[in-house]
Amino acid sequence: MQTTFVVTIVVGAPIVTALSTGYSLPTWASRVSFAVRIGAIIWFLTAVTVFAYARRHAA
Fold first, then answer.
1. CA-based angle 9:11:13, to the nearest 5?
2. Mean pLDDT in runs of 10 for the chain (59 residues)?
3. Do the Cβ atoms of 2 and 45 come closer than 8 Å?
């Protein structure tokens, strides 16, 4: 669980920042909404990847 959290922050923050440059986010509400939507996708992909890695190397 800690691995998922750390990897999501380290990898996800730059991705969200890079993707946000292509959108107009004039208010804090729109910025938060964008970060949550993209962050949820990144968190899910990270969790699936970490799970697959752990399952493969546990055997």
1. 60
2. 83 92 95 94 91 87
3. no
